[in-house]
Amino acid sequence: MSQINYDAMSRDELKQYFLKHRGDHAAFQAYLDRINQRPLKIIVSPDDPDFDEKVQAAIRQKLETARNKSSKGSQ
């Protein structure tokens, strides 16, 4: 059996691999390690007077990014 190189996989590839090979504990650990390496992006603090607007803008941006990825993948 050949050794799987999780480091060579993108985060999405690693996620898809783990979802197809749920018994692969090393893949699961590699995925957890990968997502825990990402820095957290703080979009707003709770006492910000524009809290609602900034949260809604961040959600719209995330949805737009997901739509763009989806439309590029279907072409």
Structure characteristics:
3 helices; mainly alpha; 75 residues; 2 domains
Q: Can you characterise this structure?
A:
The structure is a single chain. The chain has 3 helices and no strands. The termini are far apart. Helix 1 (about 10-20) packs antiparallel against helix 2 (about 25-35). It has helices at about 10-20, 25-35, 50-75. It folds into 2 domains: about 1-40, no CATH class; about 40-75. The chain has about 80 residues and is mostly helical. It is about 60% helix and about 0% strand.
The amount of beta strand, in percent, is under 5%
Class based on secondary structure composition and strand pairing: mainly alpha
Rounded to the nearest angstrom, the distance between the terminal CA atoms is: 36 Å
Secondary-structure element order, N to C: HHH
Helix content: 55-70%
Q: Tell me the number of strands.
A: 0
Q: Total domains, how many?
A: 2
Q: In one word, what is the shape? A: elongated
Number of helices in the DSSP assignment? 3
| Cα Rg | 17 Å
Mean pLDDT: 89
> What are the segments in which pLDDT stays under 50 over at least 5 consecutive residues?
none
| Biggest sheet features | none
